[in-house]
Amino acid sequence: MSDTPESGPSGEPGRPAGDGTAPPRLGPRALEYPDTDPADRAAFGRPDGVGSSFAPPAHAGSNGSVPVAPPPTAAVARAFGRPDDGGAGLQRPPAGGPSAPGEQSKVDGEQSNGDREQSNGAFWPGGSADDPWRNPGAPVVAAPPHGDADPAPAPDRPDGPRLSVREVLFGDRVQPRALALLGVLALAIGAVGGLAGHWTASGASALTSPGAVLATAEEAKERPPGSVPDVAARVLPSVVSLEVTVGNQAGNGSGVVIDAEGYVLTNDHVVAPATGPGQGSIEAVFSDGSRVPAAVVGTDPMTDLAVLKVPVANPTVAAIGRSAELAVGDAVIAIGSPFGLAGTVTTGIVSAVNRPLRLDPEGSAGDAVIDAVQTDAAINPGNSGGPLVDATGAVVGINTAIRSAGTEAGGQGGSIGLGFAVPIDEARTIAEELIRTGGVAHADLGVNARSVTDGATDGAQVQNVAAGGPAAAAGLLEGDVVVRVGGRSIAGADELVVAVREHAPGDQVPIELVRQGRPLTVTATLGQR
């Protein structure tokens, strides 16, 4: 390379190549600028009088210097100034370099732009172009907000000392209350586990056991007071089965104990065969199976009632109710020995009250007419003389008769829901009189009558009048139709009989009648029969 110096960029001579200070540098080549179009120059060129791309600022001094801004206030300096420890800022180079980027080296003081670029590049390792803080093309990444960083993991806690059973129980390391609570919890958990195991085992055995499926049933049945089982259990000990034997023939019926002395109330037609010429025997069988002989105290064929006495100490006595308080629809229970089946219980309701009924005279000594209580409780031959009780267990009637297709045909038929009982109000009066005197006197009008109707009015027409009797004395004539006796309407001949028997002998009773189409009222003094 020649030692002849070459011109620099400004025409100044360059430095010799061999002085060891800096390598020789070539100046830039001259630039050739083509002529521009006058129209483009007028549109995009500088205005006249402007020689630079940047106009001097308006506040520049006469010498071109720019005034410096006043120093910041103390508050702004504390807020935005550098820390007091003199730490390096973002523009401060690493230790050992110049005080700030862009400062020139003091060597020779005439370095070219290329020298300054190389010197500035030494401020940062790898050069300023590789520093993302100085590289304008570096990508911008948003930093996470403060506090969103994952928290630091908690430090592992060291394991504490282990306690032995002796220290827990006797070392005062655990409170007694805590030990008691742990014991209760252990017992509770054990009990729950045992129950669960028991239920599981029971269910499993039920699922795996072979055999038929059994219907569920209650372990115990409730029999509240007033139920049929309760009433039957209380009344059955007072009901007896009567076996009547006359020669080689035997019959059966029922009865009920009405007095602690051993008096038994029954039907006259039940004991009538034993009181006749054959002089048969009567035996009473109680619900416990004991048998005792029974003696006839008295009978009343007109009401088909009889009283017996049995030699039993402290017998169970039935409670006596009031038939006058019965209403149609009341629940009733019939107890007796139908067809010899002792202790039979049937249930039903009161179908009618004050039902006049003429009984079959077969087996009885007279023509009995009763003012019956009608019921649909099953009553069959053998129930006669047994009690009809209400829902409280009190006797309200004495079962006496049935009506069925078999009896209408002349044979012995079964129950079809038409049963009849003597009202207990009348039966008690008759029984008391039989116990006192052995017989009963009934009121009598002294007429025979038949049932008649004209389509609008029913009554009992007088067929004949007994000479010298109460009816003859009152002026009753044959053909008169009796429509009322006392306060009771008369719908037929049987009702006339029961209406008269409601009164006592010697009572004066008004009698309303129709004679030849004209109403008439007479007063009769009842006689005795």
Q: How does this model look, in words?
A:
By secondary structure, this protein is an alpha+beta fold. Among the domains are: 228-437, Thrombin, subunit H (Beta Barrel), CATH 2.40.10.120; 443-528, Pdz3 Domain. The chain is 21% helix and 24% strand. It is built from eleven helices and 21 strands. It has helices at residues 38-44, 74-80, 113-121, 165-170, 176-208, 228-235, 268-275, 405-408, 424-437, 470-474, 493-501, and strands spanning 239-246, 249-257, 263-266, 281-285, 291-293, 295-300, 305-309, 331-336, 344-358, 369-375, 387-390, 395-402, 419-423, 443-444, 447-453, 458-465, 481-485, 488-489, 508-515, 518-525, 527-528. The protein has a seven-stranded antiparallel beta sheet with strand order 5-4-1-2-3-7-6, sandwiched between helices. Strands 8-9-10-13-12-11 form a six-stranded antiparallel barrel. Strands 15, 16, 17, 18, 19 and 20 form a six-stranded antiparallel beta sheet that branches. Strand 6 and strand 7 form a beta hairpin. It starts with 37 loop residues before the first helix and ends with a strand. 26% of the residues are buried. The model is unreliable at 1-18 and 96-122 (pLDDT under 50).
